[in-house]
Amino acid sequence: MKTQQLRNIRFSMTLRITFAAMAVFTLCFAARAAQVPAAAPGLDVPAHLSDFVLVKSEFVDDPTFGKDPFFPNSRRRYGNRPISTGPIEVVPATELRVNGISGSKNRPLAIINFRTFSLGETAELRVKGEVVKVRCIEITEKVVKVTVNGLPKELTVPETVKATPVIEKPKP
């Protein structure tokens, strides 16, 4: 029974302290509100806020700098500027190298510029500081056929690269 009485006393003390603190804060804010001078005539801004200087934000939308973080491939920032229709520079096939062949006969894998591709897979590779889209079309022991930015290329597998055999588990 003693613990219940101690809890009740502690609860009532907590309530008293809380109400006392609320009363003190209310009196302080009421006293502060009474000290604030009246607003200057003809202004919509209260006098205590007239010391603040409002600074207008500036946003510079320069299409030659940066890109839209939400739509990085969007062309809307460039307006009606003509897009270059000149010859597309194609990455030479010598820049793309087959580093290895692996996988099974049913799922062959080719490693091109240290990126693993399966049949039909598309990825972006950085070659000579430019990003190119590479799609793997066919994988054989001697040749890997890909498209680079939509143009077909054949990458020969170097003699030093050996196909890594995959040991397939026998089916029960």
Structure keywords:
3-stranded antiparallel sheet, SH3 type barrels, single chain, alpha+beta
Give a verbal description of the structure.
There is one protein chain. The chain has one helix spanning 2-35; strands at 98-103, 108-112, 115-118, 122-127, 130-139, 143-148, 151-156. With 172 residues, the protein is an alpha+beta fold. The radius of gyration is 36 Å and the shape is elongated. 20% of the residues lie in helices and 25% in strands. Strand 5 and strand 6 form a beta hairpin.
Concise synopsis of the structure shown:
The protein has 172 residues and is an alpha+beta fold.
CATH class of the largest domain: Mainly Beta
- By secondary-structure content and strand pairing, the structural class works out as alpha+beta
Rg on CA atoms, Å? 36 Å
Mean pLDDT: 79
Along the chain, the helix and strand elements come as HEEEEEEE
According to CATH, what is the topology of the largest domain? SH3 type barrels
**Low-pLDDT segments:** none
User: What kind of sheet is the major sheet?
Assistant: 4 strands, antiparallel
- In the CATH classification, which architecture of the largest domain applies? Roll
Number of strands: 7
Measured distance between first and last alpha carbons: 73 Å
Strand percent estimate: 25-35%
Strand order in the sheet with the most strands: 4-5-6-7
How many separate structural domains?
Answer: 2
Helix content: 10-25%
